[in-house]
Amino acid sequence: MQLENYRGLNALVTGASSGIGRVLSLRLAKEGARVALVARREAELETLAEEIRAAGGEAVSLPCDVADAGQVTDVARKALEAFGSIDILVNNAGYGGQSNFLDWDLEDMERLMRVNYFGTLYFTKALLPQMVERKTGWLVFVSSVSGKIASPEKSAYAATKFAMSGLAEGLSLDLEVMNAGVHLLTVHPGVVRTPFFTEQMLRGMPEKTRNSMVEPEGLVDAIFGALAKGKRELTYPGGLSAGYIVKALAPNFLRNQVLRVTKK
Ligand SMILES: NC(=O)c1ccc[n+]([C@@H]2O[C@H](COP(=O)([O-])OP(=O)(O)OC[C@H]3O[C@@H](n4cnc5c(N)ncnc54)[C@H](OP(=O)(O)O)[C@@H]3O)[C@@H](O)[C@H]2O)c1
What local confidence, expressed as pLDDT, does residue 201 receive? Predict the structure, then answer.
């Protein structure tokens, strides 16, 4: 289902206070959509909402911890009260981390799953029914290339993104079988220049990876392009998707390549 005209549509973006979600929210507003901005940091959301309003757009800020099912239900209700409906849900809130499995704190591993995966599940459960009822809607899941190919010191993060991509793949098929009129796009970004990477992570990043970093604006352009074409999957930069084919055909070769390029 192609999406080209955003005028009159209502969107909700999680993780709107920073990075990819912030750029995506600004672009949605510029294209004419009303945007509900969700994240924990209220001041950042309000600054963004004011920026959108100053440019003639419409936005509401709805602070929320996506890992808390009760808060998500409450915020989804507030967004529906404010806009009447939500046509586009972008599940983007998330964080990373890097550690050897043995050193990774169990509580943080659980928290990571609650934010990256369960946050997506809660918002989709809360907002999909009204899309199905109206037989229209778009879901955008911001997963990661790490949701297709794991790498060293990313085990807990990759698990959250594999879960997210698996949910997306299954749900997209359910929507098709139901003839629901709702489209799901899963996005697998590579390495994007955002506050996602702490100074420590940047210092530990292999030079090759650091040099392959892309800007969030480029990713957002690609997301809008993929929605306009009715695509169901987007990997950005596109060249990274060659890795999926290599993984399927020659898993040991890909494994050795991953070990080689992630070597510090
Ligand atoms: N940057 C990359 O290279 C890259 C690559 C692949 C995938 N991704 C994915 O892209 C998404 C966005 O990341 P980004 O690069 O834009 O990072 P970012 O700049 O750090 O933004 C992350 C956003 O998620 C929000 N967030 C984190 N925990 C939250 C929680 N518990 N409840 C509500 N909101 C929460 C943050 O807001 P608050 O702190 O205000 O809550 C922030 O708005 C993530 O899912 C990430 O896994 C990023």
Answer: 85
